Structure formats: C-alpha cells, structure tokens
Amino acid sequence: MSELRKDPVIGRWVIIASERGKRPTDFATATPKGKPGSCPFCEGNETMTPPEIYAVRSHDTLANTPGWKVRVVPNKFPALRVEGSVDREGVGMFDKMSGIGAHEILIETPMHDDFLQNRSNEGIMLLLDTYQKRMVDLKRDIRLHYIIIFKNEGERAGASLSHSHSQIIATPIVPKRVREEVDGSLEYFGYKMRCVFCDIIREEKRFGSRIVYESASFISLCPFASRFPFEIWLLPKRHMSDYSLMTQQESVELSECLLITMKRLAVALGEPQYNWMLHTEPNTAVPRNPWPDIRDHYHWHFEIIPKLTRVAGFEWGTGFYINPTPPEDAAAFLREVEG
Amino acid sequence: MSELRKDPVIGRWVIIASERGKRPTDFATATPKGKPGSCPFCEGNETMTPPEIYAVRSHDTLANTPGWKVRVVPNKFPALRVEGSVDREGVGMFDKMSGIGAHEILIETPMHDDFLQNRSNEGIMLLLDTYQKRMVDLKRDIRLHYIIIFKNEGERAGASLSHSHSQIIATPIVPKRVREEVDGSLEYFGYKMRCVFCDIIREEKRFGSRIVYESASFISLCPFASRFPFEIWLLPKRHMSDYSLMTQQESVELSECLLITMKRLAVALGEPQYNWMLHTEPNTAVPRNPWPDIRDHYHWHFEIIPKLTRVAGFEWGTGFYINPTPPEDAAAFLREVEG
After folding, report:
1. Helix A248-269 to helix A121-139 angle, to the nearest 10 degrees?
2. What is the ipTM of this complex?
C-alpha cells in the first residue's frame, strides 16, 4: 500500500507508491505505447481493464462490453486506493499517513487514434460531463479533500498509453499548489472584496493582447506570468468556485471554447504533446474545512501546458521559470490560426 | 531585454526572456548537441564563447586561449543581464520588474567527453571551488538577492550542449522555492531552537536506511519524502547556512563525498541524466534582508535529481509527486554499488 510522506522543511506531501516498486532496471525499459488490438482502452478490449465504475453507453449494452462512448475504470496500478482508513503516524521527526484516495482512468473515446482536437463538440461535452459526474460522486467521500482531473497527451507529457484518456486522482489532503492558489485568492479577496480571477478576466479583456479565444461565457488566454511558452488558462466568465456548479448550457459553451482553443494549439504548434489540469475548489464537505467562504474568492479554470521546453535544474532549484515566448506573442500566433 | 512578471494569484515570479523570443516553429528543431571541433566549450574554441569572467589556468597562458582547467563565461543567450537598474512597474493589476541579474556558464573541463563521474577528486574540487568563488563575487552586487548554481546533465535534464557545464543564475528576488525552504527552516527553529537540517541528519543516522554515503564531514541520503526515484540530498554535517562558509579542508571532503555519490548513481542506473542544484542562503547583504538570523536556521545542501520519470499533469496541477521507488530501496541499491 502507498503512503503519503511530508517533507519536514517545506511541508510538501509526496506519494511513495511502493506497489509500483520500481527497481533501477525498470527505468531503462521503453514506454509501452499500446497499439489497436493490444490496447486496453480500445473498444472490444474491455476485459483488459478493471471493471468499469461509470460509462456512457447504449441502453441495450452490458457493462464491460462494447457500445460505450466514454468509460471510467480504476487505474490498474493506482497511486492511491479507496480501501482502508486515513491513519496518521509520526516516524521519529517525520510525518506520514496511509495512501487513501482514488485513482481512476477516464477513457475518452472507444477509438484508438481519435485525438481530442479532431472530435466533435458533442464528444468533448461527453468528456466534460463525465468529469463533472465523477467529481460529484467522489466528493461524497469526506475522507477525500481534493479531486484533481488531468490529461497527459503524449509520452513527453507523461502518458504511458497513446489512446486518449484523462485521469482522476482524489487525495486525503489538499495539495500544496492548490492550497497556495486558494490562499492567494482569499488574500486578494481580503484586500479588494473581489475575486482575483474575475479581475484577471476584466484586465485581459481590457488589454486584449493575451486572449486566445472568447465566447459569451468562456475565455481562453495566455496568462501574464506564463511559466511556459504557449501556456493557456481557460476560465468561465461567470464567477464559480466549483466545476460542478456549471450549468448544462455552460457545459455546451465550454466544450466549444475548449475545442477551438485546442485546435488552434494543434495547428500553430503541429499537434504538440501537452498536459491539462482542472483546478477547482477543494471538497468543502470535509471536517474542519479551512475555507468557509471559498465560493466568494475561488474561481475554477483549466490550465493547459504544451510540452515545448525542458524543465531543468534552475526551475527545480528555485520554482522560478524562464519562458522564452512572451504570452502576448503566443496569443497572437494562436489568434492568427483559422479554427 | 528580459522582464520578470509576478503571478497575481500565487505570487510566483517568472522570467519572460523576450530576447530568446521563440516562435512556434523554433520548438520543432532538434537540440544541438555539439561535437568536438564545433563545440564552443572545448579547449581551442575559446573564441566561440563571450570573453571569460574567470578561469583556472596556467600562469603562462592568456585569457581566452587554451591552457585552462575550468572556465566561466557569460551565457551567450542570457535569461538575465547585469546592465541596467531594477525598475519595478505596475501594468494594470499586474506587477513586473526589469530582468536584472547574471547568467554565467561554468565549463567544468576542457575535454568534451569528460563526464563528472570519471574525473578525479582534484577535478571535482576545482569545480566546487569555482562555485564558491563566483558566488562570493556575485554577492557583492546587492541588487542580486539570490545566486543559484545548478547542473543539467543530458538532454532530458535540459542541457543543450553535451560538454559538461554548470550554470550560475543570479536573480533580483529570492525565488519562491528558496523562500519556502528558508521560511520553513525559520519556523522549525522557532519551535525547537534547532536547525531542521541538522535534525534530519541526526534522524537519518539513527535510521541508517536512507543513507547513501557518509564521511567525517558530509552525508548523502535519499530524503524521507523524496519526490523522485533516487533523489539524493548531500549535506555538510557541520551547521553552515552558506556554501561560502565551507573551509578548504571541507571542500576536499565534499569533493570526495560528491564523487562517490555520483559514481554510485552512475553505476546503479547506467549513467542517468540528472539535475543538481546547490541550495544556499540568499544574499544577506541586500537592503531589508528579511532573515537576520539565517545563520542559525538555514543549512546549505545539494539536491540531485536523476531524470527517470516524467513529470505529468498530476504534478503540475497539484505540486504533489508520485514516487514509485521508496527512498529506503533507492538508498539500499546505491549502497550495494562498489565505489
């Protein structure tokens, strides 16, 4: 079973996934990419994955058989597991806790080479809707303090299978980066009585130069202090702290904004590998929720990072990033693309 | 000229290096690796770099000619420059400042394929001594709040030239990750009146299981909450906040501990690519130094990270790491290696 360990200097938690137990020689082996036929995520190969947790499928089909459009299964090699209790323990001066949580794979499409940017609006909506459903379900478990949904596209972005999929990890603590963002938004709200993300949207609309795409309800932009070339944030214009507060109509508009943004990125940069992460509010149902007013000060959004540069010693040593492409230039390139 | 920009939510600064001004097509080109003959870091090619800032060379040779052992030159495409003043400016709700600083390349050896793990103790000492000299010199400039020295070995680790080199970047602010570490050590000192790193060394000696190598004055270990497989910290046993406080005798011992540690890593993992970062105290000579008692609570050290896994959406989205190799296992593998 995995365990969580806390760095005694800066308080960062890490997951020590002993089950994956990699030995020195395990790192040399090439990444399996999966081919149609042998790919566990392809339609027809449902028995190659653990039994499904959720699926969008025709009413006349059985679970774990073909006929689905989106399918959610537990990760075969999970970093965290649902079974067990949250045990906290000191080991000398160090702190650890049991690796309780969830680790699910969301198979986005039954077809092997059906990349996101080539799908229809409806295909994207199905994905975004599944994100919402799994998030709502996982939040019922009040041991789970945070649910992160993310997508690794391509080997450089950390994907071990090429068939399009997203991942859902639920953690028994609020991760450091999320905590910083929520605390930062609370501090800003304390000064100004306004949401910092709403203010960013207002400023970006005034400047115009960093906007990638804008619709009635959503906006995608290259943020002022982008860490990476062509980094993009996608935000709802309406103030909403949680992804699950999005209406059905907004979900339709989000799929359109996301699809256009990803198509532009694919065209401008030649289908780059990328990560995206959905940043939403922590589970407010947990005991002693530290952010009682989070609906006022936090604002959910997507962060999209194309893998164009290497993160090196400078970034690891300092948490400071060197970005060789000003976000104004990146946004201009992306706006020029038809789509 | 580069500029520094601050993220309005979490306060992270980034360097927008407009001079490097990468366009979408620039990312597709393969990384130049440099070959003997055309490599600007090789002996005989001194005119291919900007003029040297510092070198260890025979007394009968001229600057920028052959005959050196270690050579420091300005980066040809610097992220930050020394010229100019530190201008701070608001742009609407956003904050930026001018990209003042320094960016130097430390060429570790005149020979192209002379990898660190194959060098002599004396070769390593020369390198470590040059780190000290450049750091002391750069700290005289009180516009520079932090000096980070790091090494990217291999393309996956972010190196664009294969000839062994380290980099020195001096920044006009203390980077977020460093600030967290210094603040963390101050908080611990406030509770316990002890240095957290000294306590870590004591605990690790008591456990024994995470130690890689130990000499009279230095220790290398896989930290309790390692983010990455085979992550290693190397610390002086004597409490010292700053790298420049190290004595000549300690420098000899450090080169031995570092060399043995790196040899073991090279043997156990088949010469992996890696980053290392020297974490030392911020420049205390700056105006309004926020850590007047830093000599009590901070403790310099190296962090060494082999590039074995990919950092993916989960890590970027949360600042939370999944490490598939428990540090106790990693240290055991490294202890088993002869060297």
Report:
1. 120
2. 0.90
